[in-house]
Each structure stands twice: as C-alpha cells, then as structure tokens.
Design a protein that fits this description.
The chain is 56% helix and 20% strand. It contains 3 helices and 2 strands; from the N terminus they run ββααα. Strands 1-2 form a two-stranded antiparallel ribbon.
C-alpha cells in the first residue's frame, strides 16, 4: 500500500508526514468533526508522544486508540 505524504507546519517548523490513506481518513475525519485544523491535531499528537518515537508511529497509535474508543 502506498504512503500518502503531506507537509505541515508544527510549532513554526515545516515537516512532512507519510501515512497510509486509511490512517489519513481517520485523522481527517476527526479534525473535521472537531472543526480544527489538521496541523493543530497533528501538533497535539506530536506534543504527547515520546520524543524517541517517530511522529508517524505516534499518529498510527493515536488512530488505533480512537478506533478502539468507538
């Protein structure tokens, strides 16, 4: 499955994040439902992750927790 790469600004710095489309669907849907920006949601996930963990892994785990909570 190909990854979809998106560029974001987090805390004033440009970065890119590559995830499978299914993960982006959940992240986008959550951001839309909460009427917040994608960058804001990813920044929140970034702030809560262990600095040694890759951001992409933190987002995937966040998606898993969201799906388990429903």
């Amino acid at each position: 499955m190909p990854l979809v790469k998106r560029s974001l600004t987090l805390h004033g710095h440009r970065t890119s994040l590559a995830l499978e489309p299914e993960f982006w669907d959940v992240v986008d849907g959550h951001a839309q439902a909460e009427k917040r920006s994608l960058a804001g949601l990813i920044a929140e996930i970034d702030d809560s992750r262990d600095p040694d963990d890759p951001l992409s892994s933190a987002v995937r785990l966040w998606v898993l927790r969201q799906l388990r909570a429903t």
